[in-house]
Model the fold of this input.
Amino acid sequence: MRGEMVHRRYLRTLVGGMLVLGLVAGGEMLYAGGANAAGLAAPVAQGEFPTPTPGPDGRIIYIVREGDTAWTIAAVAGLSLQELYALNGLQPTDFLRPGGQLILGLGGPARPTAGPSTLPTQTPVPPTPTPTFGTGEICVLLFHDRNGNARYDAGEEPIAAGQLSVTDVTGAETVEHATDGTTALSAFEEPIGFCFMDLESGDYNISAAVPVEYNPTTAMNLPIRLNAGEVKYVEFAAQASGGAGGPTPAGGSRSTVLGILGLGLLLGAAGLGYYAMRLNRKSPSSLR
Done:
């Protein structure tokens, strides 16, 4: 009887030990299976992989997280290890630190998405400039350049019997005016000549002709561009050629003196000739 009881206790102990060993072994298998499954999966599940967007410079940046490896990052980003290494200048032996940045590619800069209530702003198109049309005037002065410096000086009067003309560059229209020796004065009491009024804006040739007793001291033709609302002032100058009321040309006084001296010499020679002739007539009678 006692041996039977001992035998039963031995069986219970044996069965209990086997159960404990089975539970321990089963737990280790479950733990090992979970560890193997975790080792096959990426440290960051693909569904949890953050989708980086291009930055302002166009680079696509990924922030390294705990447990990431170059292989898992390249696989999820669709790159080969060589491409990932080349983009970031890495070597296979380099260690990836959590928080570090990796370049996954290059793209255009991220652009903000307009809200549903935001309407695009239309850029106003600047109006096409239209040419301006209008009229202006050209005032032309023809004056007596007494000192010959080709510049108007106080006291130099306008020339009468001159001819002024304004012609557009096409030659289709010419306006003329004959000077009479009078002219209008500006606000500074300076002569401004004759003014051709209401001329259409454009390009013109201004010319002047002087009387025969004058010699021009400036060019007698000048091109001008006239804009709407403008007043252009043009001056032409001429100097009197001896006997027109102006100064005697340079060297004129010397010529006059030489002429008088020559005339005196001629008269003296004629007197001496007459005296010699009279002397010759008287000589025969005196010798007798």
User: Anything to note?
Assistant: The chain is about 30% helix and 25% strand. The two ends are 232 Å apart (CA to CA).
